[in-house]
Amino acid sequence: MITFPHRTVRAVGAAATLLGAIVLASPLFAASRQVLAKASSQEAMASTSDSAAIVPVEARIRDLHKKLHITAAQKPQWDALTLVMRDNAQAMVDLQKQRASDAQSMSAVDVVKSYQTVIEAHEAGMKKFVPPFEALYGAMSDAQKKTADSLFRSRARVSAAKQTAANK
């Protein structure tokens, strides 16, 4: 683990980690872990399908739809958001597949650069996610907003707790 002596660098790193974890990390890293686990052999890598690796984001989409009680009137905003969620998940799966296929030949510098690429993909994914999420949130009733606030706060608390535990 790399430790950063400057408080600002640590805070920025923690904020970036938290943002990624709020929406992207759990379903996407779950998909990434599936891909990496299956990629341990060439045969397994060849049999890994994109659709199987996207299952976690589909479950998250269904869960959010149910918990947020998305209405027919909110369908256009919801559809725009789910498109971004699926695209972001696919981008992460593709990156993880590439990393898995290169794992045996990567130098330490290559590994660090691959992490940089993943972080940049998370950042790009968040930039794409925020506008349709804001549009959906703006179309929500007060009760739906309260539910969304609670759901995303609890994910943020879980992520922060994990980050704190990892830093000890």
Describe the structure.
The chain is mainly alpha-helical. 85% of the residues lie in helices and 0% in strands. It is built from seven helices and no strands. Helix 1 (7-38) packs across helix 5. It is globular and about 50 Å long. The model is unreliable at 14-48 (pLDDT under 50).
Fraction of residues in β-strands = under 5%
Regarding quaternary structure, what we see is: single chain
What proportion of the residues is helical, as a percent range?
over 70%
Q: Which structural class best describes the helix and strand composition?
A: mainly alpha
Shape: globular
Number of helices: 7
* Secondary-structure element series: HHHHHHH
Give the N-to-C terminal Cα separation: 11 Å
Structural topology:
Elements: H1 7-38, H2 42-47, H3 50-53, H4 55-68, H5 75-102, H6 108-139, H7 142-167
Helix pairs in contact: 1-4, 1-5, 1-6, 1-7, 4-5, 5-6
Characteristic terms for this protein:
single chain; 168 residues; mainly alpha; 7 helices; 85% helix; 0% strand
What is the structure about, briefly put?
By secondary structure, the chain is mainly α. Helix content is 85%, strand content 0%.
